[in-house]
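To close the section, here is one more complete example, presented without commentary so you can practise reading it yourself. The ligand is Phenylacetyl coenzyme A.
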Amino acid sequence: MTQAEQERRFQEKIEKEIKIEPNDWMPDEYRQTLIRQISQHAHSEIVGMLPEGNWITRAPNLRRKAVLLAKVQDEAGHGLYLYSAAETLGADREQLIDDMHTGKAKYSSIFNYPALTWADIGTIGWLVDGAAIMNQVALCRTSYGPYARAMVKICKEESFHQRQGYESLMKLCNGTPQQKAMAQDAMNRFWWPALMMFGPSDAESTHSDQSIKWKIKRFTNDELRQSFVDASVSQAEILGLTIPDPNLKWNEARGHYDFSEINWDEFWQVVKGNGPCNKERIAARLKAKEDGLWVREAANAFAKKRAMKKSA
Ligand code: FAQ
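Output:
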């Protein structure tokens, strides 16, 4: 079969909503796009454990501590499913992780902002997991089978994450004036970075057009961002929090909320490694890799010993 014929058949499958599986023929660019996106997604889950992990020992009570611990563990699990999904495309996990450490591969900009107060933890659950779900529910229908199936489980867990965050904020917003002020301060700091999670505007997005043709992405960055803004307004109202945007206004003609232009300069600075916590996050990941070396060595030695015993 010629290359052109293979490509035609591949696109036909995509149009018919037949999932592409690891052993199926696929264009090399499709494979590389998936490895890039899935591995960056995996890195985001793992780096995303850091701001919240810092609060496990400082959670205000046992219940909140248990919930936060479970959430951070879930993020590790998501990272592992996603690295496994990338491996089904022939990627090498160690190489992918090294690419993150050297800055060759990205992870979500949001995790380069600090979690300064306990209200930030509730806000991360509400807004950051909320934005993640908006993007990831669409990925449950992505064209590559292993990624789509991983996303189904991940979305169920993200949904719990979002609700626990909202519930935690609800408690603060109905608490003392100081607690309410702490929640508003967290909202003020996280709102814009949460909107940046959806990526550059459609006009600036390099990969969207092709990814939509391949049905890797089902919606554009701006479409998902708009859905997130529309969903968040009434949630903020119920909490009694003000979204820090003077131009946020319902537009009857569009059937959507209008909102201010994002500070794209800040977004690209953070993506390029100059955000408030970029260096700290990579340093923490590198230290974890070094500290865990003896565990990996021991596990490998044990596996080798068992394999030798089996073959003897
Ligand atoms: N941060 O052409 P596009 C979570 C890069 S998981 C940094 O539009 P694409 C769970 C992009 O990679 C959050 N870089 O790219 C959790 C590309 O650069 P490249 C992560 C960004 O791929 C919650 C360039 O800009 N979710 O939060 C960002 O078509 C709480 C041009 O952009 C996913 O990864 C950004 N925000 O669309 C964990 C979902 N945006 O690669 C712990 C899967 C864009 O050419 C606690 N990913 N860039 O060097 C996606 O849906 C897509 O990859 C997008 C970007 C929508 C993120």
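Once you have examined the tokens, check your reading against these statements. Residues 36-37, 40-41, 44-45, 48, 75, 106, 108-109, 124, 128-129, 132, 135, 196-200, 205-208, 211, 221, 271 surround Phenylacetyl coenzyme A (CB under 6 Å). The longest helix spans residues 145-173.
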